[in-house]
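ok so i was messing around last nite and threw this chain in just to see what happens. nothing serious, just curious
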Amino acid sequence: MKDLFLFAGLISQNHAWIYLFHVILVAIIAIGLARLATSSMQLVPRGFQNIFEAYLGGVMSMGRDTLGSDELARKYLPLVATIGLMVCVANLIGMVPGFEAPTAFLDFTLSLALIVFIYYNFEGIRENGVVKYFAHFMGPVKALAPIMFPVEVLSHISRVISLSFRLFGNIKGDDLFLAVLLALAPWVAPLTAYALLGLMAILQSFIFMILTFVYLAGAVLISEDK
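result:
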């Protein structure tokens, strides 16, 4: 959105610079919030500690429901919770005038999708072994294995496209929607739009986290009959 004012644009209009500026800013904010939440831990949580404990508890519950055990949910909690926090902050920062959401850049969403893709396949191989993990790509019927294997491979590759383009498309559309409203009715319309876009920002981070858990579950929890 080169026609809109961006603080990063005061230094350079280069795409790579604007993207890197917002990614670093999101990382600093996320780390800062985490530090605030853990700087003065109390038995009865208050303030940011209370918010982050509720957040981590929600992610744990999500992982427990998807993976079926507290052990696995706790194992993958750092990855999923960190991704969720980064995506949420990245989505929300785009609502602030003068900033653009890093998730409105395909570079960012594709990087996250590749991290998830590589990690869940790595975990699947580590937990089940190379032979058993790739054997489940062939399906339960051996006669259909030559057909099922390439279909499964394409299905897994399509997850990278699905994860990255879903998040990118939704946030890019939200940014354009907000830009139009700010141009047409800068004092009235944004009040409702900000509430709606804030909800969408949180929802998109939730979707990314739940899909990450689902992919991990599919890779790690392979039934014995396959």
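not much to say yet. The chain has seven helices and no strands.
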